[in-house]
Amino acid sequence: MHHSNIRINQAGQKLSFHQWNNRLNHLNDMALFVEVARARSFRKAAEALGMPNSTLSRRISELEKAIGLRLLHRTTSKIELTEAGQLYYERSKRIVDEARLAHEQLGAMVEQPSGVLRVSLPVDFATLYLTPIIGDFARHYPGITFEFDLTPRRVDLVAEPFDLAIRIGKLEDSSLIARLIGRHSRHLYASPGYLEASGEPATPAELAEHECICMPRTPTWTLHQEMNKVDVGVHGRFTLNSVGMIRALAVNHQGIALLAEKIVAEDVASGRLRRILPEWQGSSVSIHAVTETRLVPAKTQRFVEFLSSRLMEP
């Protein structure tokens, strides 16, 4: 027999899937019996449970048959518990009430999730995207505490104790579950000081004549204009793997940068940076929330939903 069809009880005996399923059905019928015993009426219990009277009566009869004892005295006017029924009711009521309380408590956790949320995320994402908005999430969910691991490495979500990881750019093929939470278009920016000193490019090709602040292994910028696309070879004195530092260098007049609009919005509003070649834009960058499984706790689900609502461009 396949292992998927076997359960082990406390005595170490094997239960077939059919026996296991029967026990689950008996637990459901126990809850129905408690409702009938409380109401002392099949009709009232059936109305409260939202099921047909005949179905409820049949289920209680099947429970009595499975137990081997009559639990109820049925008359045309009322229902009374037998001696066995009274004992079964007293024991069953506690079990059913405990189960109901557990569901209510779990429901409260879904509404107001709590616990430690452990997230692995890139340094740039944490400082540029998350820091300005995390306070809103923390205020809305006071029961959650946070452990953020800022690292460039791709943590192992199966072996390491993280609820989720944030990944920027193209995803590697894996068995992990990834949800797109943001896709940001990028544009070209430079400071007024740099443009005054070096001039402003009028076409993408002229970028080759300028100081461009680049990421490692990206000597080519791909730019789009409606249906047109052009690849431009770029170079500069600064090559680095920090979006935050690229932005800072651009603000400090060190060259032209290809950055997401969200990252430089305040710099543009204050005049520290200016968008150039406005009819062109770079390839968009994708942001994913990655988990080991689709079955994530409420704290993780709410966090992913929050990030998506704040980061996804219309």
TrEMBL record:
InterPro entries: LysR-type_TF_proteobact-type, LysR_HTH_N, LysR_subst-bd, WH-like_DNA-bd_sf, WH_DNA-bd_sf
Name of this protein: Transcriptional regulator, LysR family
Keywords linked to the UniProt accession: DNA-binding, Transcription, Transcription regulation
Domain HTH lysR-type: 27-82
Transcription listed as a keyword: yes
Pfam families per record: HTH_1 (PF00126), LysR_substrate (PF03466)
Organism: Mesorhizobium ventifaucium
UniProt keyword Membrane present: no
Superkingdom of origin: Bacteria
Cited CDD domains: PBP2_CrgA_like
